[in-house]
Model the fold of this input.
Amino acid sequence: MPPRPHEPGTEAIPQVGAGVRRAASAVRTARGRARNPAAAVRVGPFARIPDPLEQAVLFNRHKTSLVPADQALPGRPTPAFTLTEPHTVLGHPLTGPYPEGLEVADFGLGCFWGAERAFWRLPGVWTTLVGYQGGHTPNPTYEEVCSGLTGHTEAVRVVFDPAVVSYERLLKTFWEAHDPTQGNRQGNDVGTQYRSAVYTHSPAQAEAAAATRDAFQPSLTALGYGPITTELAPAGPFYPAEPYHQQYLSEAKNPNGYCGLGGTGASCPIGVARTQG
Done:
């Protein structure tokens, strides 16, 4: 799998996996090379001890158990940034309020760069944006989420026209675009922020998510995969990610950028649960 690109002004970061390079480069923008998480970070000709957030990113980067609410980072009452630019591909606003008749769906399926692209390509999708969901920390930053101390997963919000594309069709893309049996990881990206999740906005969405999960499991089992570990839960607060993460893999930004998304080859038979019910 190719390494993830670094943010402008950073050097390559050795001794860490692909799933960490985004986090480590983000917390170290223009700061030089980190040679050892336990050692000092070099800044030009000098050295310093990593700050607490950098240490959290480096030492918790493979965290595979959710942080308890009473141990999560405190966050902040308001966002640390704003989203003002429209969708790079679709041209519509990223945040609401959205036009009447559109619906919202939220999915977590590993690194949100490739996940978002999988949905904006579908006809009937009005806009997409990436963010953080399912955790405890209000208005987290990317660095905080990557520390494993917020409880959030990287998520994609899909705003769609149900007259053109059904929620079940979005679920089919969700199930087939990643491996939902891996728990708190997705391929080389390891940590609770990469867990598979569907956050629902209505009883109908919750029913469809559970039905398609159950319909998809036999296809996975036939290919030798284990049980689905996807989290299904009512949607809580969705905190948009930083502007540079939005539509990261678009032609206008990084069309050849890192994409850790990889499916199983199994097909999700949407509609099966309804016809059998």
Remarks:
- Residues 1-21, 23-46, 272-277 have pLDDT under 50 and may be disordered.
- Helices lie at 18-27, 52-59, 112-120, 142-146, 167-177, 203-222, 272-276.
- The CA atoms of residues 41 and 51 lie 9 Å apart.
